[in-house]
Design a protein that fits this description.
The chain is of the alpha+beta class and about 230 residues long. It is built from eight helices and eleven strands.
Length: about 230
């Protein structure tokens, strides 16, 4: 049953014409009537049903305005790189002993980064890390010798973009408390990344079919994109 607060929000937004993101942000924020700082979220539908199989998009975006979330970052590296990881802000740093803890099921982190030299050992834990989406991936930048940069990116507002089997992508572009220009920069960064991904795909038609924006506890509005992707 919908709450009294939700019932007071704008109704039948699905019947409204699509509108540009800059005009929708004030409406979405107006619907943030809860006591906490709601997330501003995008929902994109991509054209993943192709004759030659489904499209699978998986990449990362460094949001220029950050995403307002604090994530717990763990690093598996050689002892010689431990201090570099700690100085960059990693919450947990370790090598072989840490790997044994992960093997025992201690997954008290939200992102795992490792050096190429340690990836061989971590790869054996695929059944533990894989289902949780925690396995480091070179394509996503989480396997690197440049520990300082990777940890800094992870802590400062990096998000992963990944479509499900139905072609849906969900991603946050920030919080209600963010100024509109910061949210717009994040929105544009996501679209620019998807445009680059499109160039790497064998795609018939446009990549993005529909785009919607909402807040954590609000209602959804359809976004009119400035150009087709």
């Amino acid at each position: 049953m919908a709450s009294k607060r939700f019932k007071q929000l704008s109704k039948k937004t699905n019947e409204l014409d699509s509108e540009t993101i800059d005009k929708l942000l004030p409406l979405v924020k107006k619907n943030c009537t809860t006591k906490f700082d709601e997330s501003i979220d995008l929902s994109l539908q991509v054209n993943n049903k192709q004759k030659k199989g489904e499209l699978n998009i998986r990449t990362i975006v460094n949001l220029p305005g950050g995403n307002g979330k604090k994530i717990k970052v763990a690093v598996v590296c050689e002892d010689s790189k431990s201090q570099e990881a700690k100085d960059a802000g990693a919450d947990i740093v370790g090598s072989d002993e840490f790997i044994e803890k992960i093997k025992a099921g201690e997954l008290n982190f939200e992102k795992l980064i490792c050096t190429p030299g340690m990836m061989v050992k971590l790869s054996k834990l695929g059944k533990i890390l894989g289902p949780k989406g925690l396995m480091p991936n070179p394509k996503l930048g989480s396997v690197s010798n440049n520990i300082k940069q990777v940890v800094t990116d992870a802590k400062s507002g990096q998000v992963e973009i990944r479509n499900d089997k139905d072609g849906n992508i969900g991603v946050s572009i920030g919080k209600k408390s963010f100024k509109d220009d910061k949210l717009l920069k994040n929105f544009n960064a996501i679209l620019e990344t998807l445009e680059k991904e499109k160039g790497n795909l064998t795609l018939k038609g446009e990549l993005i079919k529909n785009t919607f924006i909402t807040s954590s506890m609000g209602v959804s509005y359809k976004v009119k994109l400035g150009k087709s992707i």
